[in-house]
Each structure stands twice: as C-alpha cells, then as structure tokens.
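Re: weekly structure request thread

Next one in the queue (90 aa):
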Amino acid sequence: MRAALLLVVGLVGLIQTLAPRPVVRAWTRVVYRDAGDAEPREWAYVAARAEGAALTLVSLVGLFRVATADTAPETTLDEDATGTDDRIDE
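Done, posted below.
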C-alpha cells in the first residue's frame, strides 16, 4: 500500500515538473470562482516545477527504502538476538 501511494505521488510530481502550466491552470480553476480573471505570475510556474521535482525526489527515495527494507523474520520469545535457542533440552 505504501509503495503504491509513493508511486502515485511520484507520478504526480513528474507531471508537475514536466508540465507546470497545465497543472497551475487546473489548480487555478479549482481554487478561484472566476478563473478567467486570475493570472498567475511567472514565479508560480517555477514554484510548481520545484514542488514537482521535490515530490518526485521524495517518492523515489521512499520507493528505494521500501524496496531495500530488511524483511528478516521476527525472533520468537525463546530466541535471543543471535537466533540461538535458549531452551534446555531434557
């Protein structure tokens, strides 16, 4: 589940990095009642591109950590950290 969420965030970030103008245009339509009167400044596109790059980078780092996570089996109460059995055999 976590990997899927990271993948979606990464794809959104990649789209926002590669095409910031349509993303800003879409958010402008969502946020303002009369989007025709709203005209974003040029730095809004730069900020959208930077945000997309940051989302993509964070997503890639998260996916790397998920892929390289140590999935060793948990030890039981009868075993110590070295994996040896401390029970006394009779």
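The first helix runs from residue 2 to 18. The helical segments are 2-18, 20-31, 42-67.
Next request, please.
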